[in-house]
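Predict structure. Chain length: 375.
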Amino acid sequence: MNAIVNAKLIYQDEIVEGKILLFNKSIVKIVDDANLKEMKVINADDNYVSAGFVDLHIHGSGGTDVMDATLEALETMSSTLLQTGTTSFLATTMTMSTEKIDNALKNIQNYASSVTGAQILGAHLEGPFINASKHGAQDKEYVQSYNFELIENYIDEVKMITLAPEIQGAKSFIKFLAERYPYIILSIGHSDASYEKSKESFSWGISHATHLFNAMSSYHHREPGIVGAVFDSEVSCDIIADFVHTHPSALELTYQVKRDKLILITDSMRAGCMKCGTYDLGGHKVKVDGDEAALEDGTLAGSVLKLNMALKNMTTATSMTLIEAVNAVTKIPAQRLGLKKGELKEGYDADIVIFDENFSIISTIVAGEIKYQRD
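Prediction complete.
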């Protein structure tokens, strides 16, 4: 048995002090007092303790990318992300050739359970079922029509799909997946759908929106587009809170409207947790300068955001509270995936993060094991 003491526990939507968190592979209990003699004691030194962070949308980190389709790439991502407080993530693919997507999904299928750091929860298929006019950093050459065969062999691994509902064949594809595989999050993104088409697609089975504002029809007071439809519905959404993809004002607006339907993601590419320089993303050169990652033509190409920094940005630039920000990377994404993660709750996975007031990660615990410790 393990025990965390002297902690500011983020527990049941409160910050609780003076209690002891007991865990093994799962959370055992939170108590006022315990006999610590037979336990491994972790002193949080009055720092914050929360459930581990969950990233629904991440392509790469530490110099590797999901599309590299190797065990080494997944392991590098898994181990690198520990320093950001991320304890689990969806390995996110890109719009590339059918062969490369198949290789990436097969690699996830074969090796997701083999990584030793942050857990891989499955795959997020970002494309290729998107609108070429909103391809962003995705390669529009490889945009294709809806095709269930692309994912049929990996249906247990695919947990989320970003797609465009205005493309021909979308309605039948979305309804089929929503009815047959309700655990898959169907998300509108890389789309030029109108407000009306977006709302209609929510009735088919779309229940989420990918990196709100980015690579989608813009909000306009006469044509509110996807953003307006998301604001006027109960679907959840995620956002890249790096001040590059979204202005603080847009972050504040989204928080005010969506509240407990808002999830923070990184959309990080292989340059995440690396130095500035030139990197590859889907076969294209990406220049990373400071917090910005862009193609040679200036198109934003994913991010180098870390989840702990997303928390810091939201709590410093918006009115989002610490507890709400933590929920946006723990409880809310875990609930969307239907997992017993994301909360310091009895019987839930012991994925735990200790961080200081500057959101610097002190310790990261995955399934009850300390996987990262700050020097």
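Summary: The two ends are 24 Å apart (CA to CA).
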